[in-house]
Amino acid sequence: MLAQGQPIPCRRRAFEEAIAFATLANESVGESLSHALIHKLGFEAPQLQVPMQLPSGRFVRPDYFWPNVRVVGEFDGAHKYTKSMQVSGKEPSRVVYEEKLREDGIRSLGHRVCRWTWADLMNPERLARILSNAGVPRSSGVRRFGD
């Protein structure tokens, strides 16, 4: 992030880079922070909210997709499960079951699925391990914003 006392041109450049990086495709604060950390950790940029048709005919939009390595990434906030009745009108057990079926459908397309939570975002090394273990490649020669 920006340090106090940084010359104005440096702060302006960092601000402009951050604005250029921003996107409305992220659908939650957790997704936005995930996207920024994926970038900051030096991983290849994912595609966001890519529609996929499951064998059942249902369309889904995973949070992140790296098509060249067939990896889907999902940020899981607890809210979807702990506040399910308020969010979707469904019992938590139903939400978990539907999420399992959704993930099984994504895997049946030949994609790997990796998931992370707020705890992983608060410890970026954990997120880096999750992405590395799933096979998400690192970027080469790309300068990251804020550096």
How would you portray this structure in words?
- It is a single chain.
- The protein has about 150 residues and is an alpha+beta fold.
- The protein has a single domain (about 10-135), classed as Endonuclease, Chain A.
- The chain is built from seven helices and six strands; from the N terminus they run H-H-E-E-E-E-E-H-H-H-E-H-H.
- Strands 1-4-5-6 form a four-stranded mixed sheet, sandwiched between helices.
- A hairpin with a 4-residue loop joins strand 4 and strand 5 (about 70-75).
- The longest helix has 17 residues, at about 90-110.
- It starts with 7 loop residues before the first helix and ends in a 13-residue tail after the last helix.
- The model is unreliable at about 145 (pLDDT under 50).
Compile the SSE list and pairings.
Blueprint: H1 8-21, H2 29-40, E1 47-48, E2 52-53, E3 59-60, E4 64-66, E5 71-75, H3 79-82, H4 84-87, H5 92-108, E6 112-116, H6 118-121, H7 124-134
Parallel strand pairs: 5-6
Antiparallel strand pairs: 1-4, 2-3, 4-5
Protein name: DUF559 domain-containing protein
How would you summarize what this structure contains?
By secondary structure, the chain is an alpha+beta fold. 45% of the residues lie in helices and 13% in strands.
Defining traits:
DUF559 domain-containing protein, disordered C terminus, alpha+beta, Endonuclease, Chain A, two-stranded antiparallel sheet, 6 strands, 147 residues, 4-stranded mixed β-sheet, 45% helix
